[in-house]
Structures are given as C-alpha cells and as structure tokens.
Amino acid sequence: MTIKNVTVAxxxxxxxxxxxxxxxxxxxxxxxxxxxxxLDKAKATFERIAAAYRQDLHAGDESIAAAFxxxxxxxxxxxxxxxxxxxxxxxxxxxxxxxxxxxxxAAVAPAKTIFATNTSTLLPSMFAEATGRPxxxxxxxxxxxIWKHNTAEIMGHAGTDKAVFDTIVAFAKDIGMxxxxxxxxxxxxxxNSLLVPFLxxxxxxxxxxxxxxxxxxxxxxxxxxxxxxxxxTLDIVGITTAYNINKMAADAAPDPLKLKIxxxxxxxxxxxxxxxxxxxxxYKYPDPAYKASDFLK
Length: 297
Ligand code: NAD
What we know:
By secondary structure, this protein is α/β, with parallel strands linked by helices. The protein folds into 2 domains: 5-181, 3-Layer(aba) Sandwich (Rossmann fold), CATH 3.40.50.720; 193-289, N-(1-d-carboxylethyl)-l-norvaline Dehydrogenase, domain 2 (Orthogonal Bundle), CATH 1.10.1040.10. Helices cover 49% and strands 13% of the residues. The chain has 12 helices and 8 strands. The chain has helices spanning 13-24, 36-57, 61-69, 77-81, 95-108, 128-131, 162-174, 191-207, 213-224, 230-237, 239-252, 256-270, and strands at residues 5-9, 28-32, 71-74, 86-89, 114-117, 137-142, 151-156, 178-182. The protein has an 8-stranded mixed sheet with strand order 3-2-1-4-5-6-7-8. Helix 1 links the parallel strand 1 (5-9) and strand 2. Helix 1 crosses helix 2 and helix 1 (13-24) packs across helix 3 (61-69). The longest helix has 22 residues, at 36-57. The chain binds ligand 1.
C-alpha cells in the first residue's frame, strides 16, 4: 500500500495543520469541509500556520509555495476522496457527527481508501462498523501545533489489518512525525494516559494543602531533570481544559478532594487566569518564575 493522495476531512484547528503538514512533505492533499465559510477560514489558518513554519522551522518561501500548490479544498465529499489513498478525519469530537460522517463517506469512497480518525477521546472501535471497511480503519492522533509537537499516536481496533497499520506508521514518519504505535486500543492513547493522572496527582497535593504549586514543580524539575513541572504544564494545556477534565471526573465519582480541585480551578477561570493563553495561570507570562535561573536554588 502506498500513500500519495491524502484527503483531510474537517479544516478546523487540527485538520488545517494536518493538511499543510502532509502537503509540505510532498503529498497531494484535498481538504473537505461542510461549507465555504469553513474553507475560507481554513485558508486564513493555512497562512498563519505557514508563518509558524517560517519562524519555527525556518521554512523558505519556495517550500511553502510548493506545499500550497499541492493543497486543494472542496465542499464535495465524493470529489474529495475520489483518488484518496488515505482520508484523515478531523471533524468535531462528537460520536453522532462522526458516525454520520463515516456512513456518508463509506458510500462514496473508493475501496482502496484507508480511513484514519484524529479523535482525542473516542475509540476507533466505536466507528469501525460505520466505515464499512473496519480492516482499513484506525486512529492517527496528532498533537496541536504538529509541526513542533510532532507526535503521531497510531492505534488500531481489534479488526484493523496489520498491513494498514504499518502503512500508516510509515506515512506518519513520511510527514515528519515521531510514529508512536499502540498495540491495542487505549482510551486517551499513551500521552494522556500518563499526563492526566500526573496532573491530577499534582492538583490533589495542591488542593489538599500539602504544598504550593511552585514547590511541587520544583520537586519534579529538580528530581527528574524535566524542564517544566505539572503546574507549568497545566498553564500550557490551559486551565479551562484542566477544569473540564476534573469536572467530568468529579461528576463521575464525587469526592471532597476532586470537588475542591474543581472549585479552585473554577475560581482561577473566574479571575481570568486561564494559563499561558491569557498571560496568567499558576505563573505569570511571558517570564514565568519557573524559567528563572534561580528557580531551583
Ligand atoms: P474544530 O472545531 O477546530 O474543527 C472541526 C472542523 O470540522 C470545522 O472546520 C467544521 O466545519 C468541520 N466539520 C463539522 N462537521 C463536519 C462534517 N460532518 N464533515 C466535515 N467537516 C465537518 O476541531 P479540532 O479541534 O480541529 O478537532 C477535530 C478533531 O481533532 C477532534 O476529533 C479532536 O478530538 C481532534 N484533536 C484535536 C486537538 C486540538 O488540540 N484541537 C488535538 C488532537 C486531536
């Protein structure tokens, strides 16, 4: 199986990044979205991403122009996949929307097309049947700002063909990713299976009054050599996302400590302390205390 033509469905935050990344690495890419307004927005997003390629990757005008020349957009689903070797789905994280999309797609895509979902929190087995080609379906999960945070977690469901899986591992490498294969389905993949409990443990120490965030971060940084601690990481992830994850956990199993974490994060949000994005979270930006040379003294 060789991948040449790639279709990206959904041109939002992640879809636009995936499309440009694949085009930049030489693939022909067609972007599908539901209406022209979404695609117009995507064109502006492509320009912003290209500016980041110039800054972060020192990409030259020629390679950016070449990437754009390999990139097309359409609102016609059948036309978008007619030659596709691979379709990457990056549409809203909503099971009903994704299921309906795969049913429509199954009716118009050629038999050869592999389907990959970029879902963050759902499992490929939930949609395998709707794709009409379970053996050619798996998850290919990117991180936001994929040109810098170039992880690609590749996760099949029990019915994914091994050759299809290997093809997608090779494709991920071909577009500049570090390919991270998972041998079985795991909610939250590898990264969030590690990160969510880690951040929860740090939040529990804070909410329980055991130590303050700076002391907890110092402990982690000094003892492991990590450049950031859990609270600096929470600022990067964003307090709203952290709040939502904790709120879901507290709703599922309310215990006093979880409820306290939720209340503390809610208070931060109410004060506009949303993390790096708003200029303040656990630290103040652009020069957070943890980056100071004497932080670990
Ligand atoms: P987004 O809301 O920014 O973009 C979604 C896009 O899908 C929009 O352009 C919308 O018009 C389009 N869309 C809606 N319905 C559609 C349909 N039926 N067919 C085609 N397009 C449709 O969302 P996002 O943040 O890019 O997330 C997309 C997927 O990527 C989700 O599954 C999410 O879990 C995953 N993801 C997101 C991030 C992130 O940091 N944002 C990171 C990793 C994975």
